[in-house]
Amino acid sequence: MENSLFADKTVYNTRKENCSERETACYDALEGLGIGYSRVSHEHIGTIEGLFEVNKALDVEICKNLFLCNAQKTDFYLLLMPGEKPFKTKLLSPQLGCSRLSFATPEYMEKLINCTPGSASVLGLFFDKGLKVRLVIDKDLLGREYFGCHPCDNSSSLKIKTEDIMNKFIPSTHHTPSFVEL
Predict the structure, then answer these.
(1) Rounded CA gap, 112 and 125, in Å?
(2) What secondary structure does DSSP assign to the chain, as a single string?
(3) pLDDT tens for residues 124-174?
């Protein structure tokens, strides 16, 4: 990649130095659970399309993480789905038994999962101690050996074994995922 978003394509198996407090908490949680990861650092990338070079460097597809809510802003959802799939709320809402969903505001995202737009991640469930967010996972992610996500900060991307996310990390947060087909 010729621009400055991703100048250093080095893959690390350790946490980034001088990282944010939320990112440090994610690394602490992963390491405390014995979950290994590979990491690359980059500038903020605001779109799933912008992650192409990151995906290539880590040999994983960073999944799409959408933070959603109902119209009343009383129910919140973190949807994990393949990055290449388009999001269609009309396919999701009936599977969850709820009315049409929309994107939650950045304020709710930060309050509930300690993430900002562009950095939403399954790792944000670590911060949802009140279990206010319902985890929703597209079944297509389950067949992948590795899972790509941000450590709640869009200046790094991680590659983690899917089985470690499903069998170690998610149970540690006390969230029970709902599985959908999109």
Answers:
(1) 8
(2) --SGGG-----BSSPPTT--HHHHHHHHHHHHTT---EEEE-S---SSGGGHHHHHHHTSPBPEEEEEE-TTS--EEEEEE-TTSPP-HHHHHHHHT-S--EEPPHHHHHHHHS--TT---GGGGGG-TT--EEEEEEGGGGG-SEEEE-SSSTTEEEEEEHHHIIIIIHHHHT---EEE--
(3) 999 999 999 999 999 999 999 999 999 999 889 999 999 999 999 999 999
